[in-house]
Amino acid sequence: MKRSPFVLFLACCLLSLAAVCEAVVPPGQVRVTFLDVARKGDGGGAGAQADDYLRSLERRWGRGGIGDAIVVETPERCVLIDGGLWTKGRAVVLPYLKRRGVARLDAVILTHQHGDHYGGLAEILEALPAGEFITNGLAHPAKAYRKLLETVQSSGARFRVVRGGETFDWGGGASATVVQGAGARGVSPDDYNNNSLVIRMTFGKTAFLFAGDCEDKEEKAILASRRDLRSQVLKVGHHGSSSSSTYPFLRAVRPEIAVVSVGEGNRFGLPHREVLDRIASFNCTVYRTDLDGSVTVVSDGTRLSVETERARPVSAVTGKPLKEEYYRFESEAKGLLRRKDYAGAAARYRKALLVEPGAASAHSALGYCLKKQGRETEAIKEFSAALPGDPCDSYANLHLGLILMRRDRTRALGCFEKYLDCHADTHWAGLAREKAGFLRARKGSELRKEGREEEAIQELEKAVALAPGNAFAHLQLGLLYPPRDLEKARRAIARCLEIEPEGRYAAEARRVAAELEADR
């Protein structure tokens, strides 16, 4: 049967609408996802499409291992609160929205003007239309923030500045209130953390409190306002910093679920031990993006359910997830380690290991603390205890290898090569290659002295493959290749002289070069 053009057009429209609405949550539900935008990596794909300035910002800020991005989905609306660092907008947030079938954002909310919150928003607004862009209205001198404001203007989104007390209708029975905006008493305009937009969303009998990077000054202002703060779900302020989540504030919120957005191994030692202890005193379950990946909380108006992107590490002893008490000691130890208090950090790691004796990362970190104190025999013991639980542990393999170079070269070589198997593209891979090349070259030299020339050549060729700048290995090959291959011998000696024209091996290399030239 022939169909009219109008019917075909209508069918296409319905199909397009279905594609756009595919991920809308069902009536009677609200879905809130705290995205893991503080994770390491993920920046490559986005960086290719970002300008050099934004890529440099990502490299500088990304080492911090922090950031926020929260997606709120109701039956009628989709709202984004913050966008993580620069490349995380395209690398993490947009792929998630695409998987959820989100083709338009009803609102984008920026809690405050710090790069780990606004960095990814420009790329998101370039890719998706948004109804409005909501902010606290403060200015910021950074070029990247000016770029964001230009993107907002060109996107067509309505620019809206909100204050404490304003409300939003997020559809499907969900509504939100600005608990606090910029301008709290005693807070200067350039104190961006304490000018965060703090937003409380309610749905049925459940409530969520999104605290931005709110610190103690803003918390005091919020408590003075006497607004209702009671919320089952709390986005922990300032990534779990000790400057936030004071006891009076937590007592007013009384959370049952707390989510900390923080990256693994971040340079700030977050979340801080004292914050985790305060939260634990309310019998609250803590989820962390460094341990759980992205965290999704679903409310039906009465009950809450939680989904995590990945399972937490398990104990090598019990086979169960590591206890929360372990993470509290570990968090305190990381803070001390960041301050180079190696003795204090070692004491906390020992306490963590009393809670979870088989925790590989704690054994490894304790080994590092002991090494920094010059206690190498104890460090060897801890690094060796870490590797059965995590054969790829970077600290254990690298630092154990460095210690064993003076004690057990064969075992040291195994550590460096295991490090390279697991972490070939990391910052310290160059050091591991250099040391592995050195050990291979020494082994090749010893085999040469024993008359095992073919085995020696194999070792030395492995050495130069690992460390092309190893002049000693090139010299040894120049001595071994004749009479097998004079041309290869000449190249090896030339490379030795190129690396160290006046080094310790230069005189012997020139002598061999002269002999090889005489044999032409």
Number of helices: 22
Strand content: 5-15%
Strand segment tally: 15
CATH class of the largest domain: Alpha Beta
Work out the helicity level.
40-55%
Explain how this protein is built.
The protein has helices at 5-20, 43-47, 52-62, 88-99, 115-118, 121-127, 143-155, 216-225, 247-253, 273-280, 289-292, 324-338, 342-355, 360-372, 376-389, 394-404, 409-422, 429-449, 453-466, 471-480, 486-499, 506-518, and strands at residues 30-34, 70-73, 78-81, 105-109, 130-135, 158-161, 167-169, 174-180, 198-203, 206-210, 233-235, 257-260, 285-288, 295-299, 304-308. By secondary structure, the chain is an alpha/beta fold. The strands form 2 sheets. The chain has an 8-stranded mixed beta sheet with strand order 6-5-4-3-2-1-14-15, covered by helices on one side. A 7-stranded mixed beta sheet has the order 7-8-9-10-11-12-13. Helix 13 packs antiparallel against helix 14 and helix 17 (409-422) packs antiparallel against helix 18 (429-449). The protein starts with a helix and ends with a helix.
Secondary structure: elements and pairs:
Layout: H1 5-20, E1 30-34, H2 43-47, H3 52-62, E2 70-73, E3 78-81, H4 88-99, E4 105-109, H5 115-118, H6 121-127, E5 130-135, H7 143-155, E6 158-161, E7 167-169, E8 174-180, E9 198-203, E10 206-210, H8 216-225, E11 233-235, H9 247-253, E12 257-260, H10 273-280, E13 285-288, H11 289-292, E14 295-299, E15 304-308, H12 324-338, H13 342-355, H14 360-372, H15 376-389, H16 394-404, H17 409-422, H18 429-449, H19 453-466, H20 471-480, H21 486-499, H22 506-518
Parallel strand pairs: 3-4, 4-5, 5-6, 10-11, 11-12, 12-13
Antiparallel strand pairs: 1-2, 1-14, 2-3, 7-8, 8-9, 9-10, 14-15
Helix pairs in contact: 4-6, 6-7, 10-12, 12-13, 13-14, 14-15, 14-16, 15-16, 16-17, 17-18, 18-19, 18-20, 19-20, 20-21, 21-22
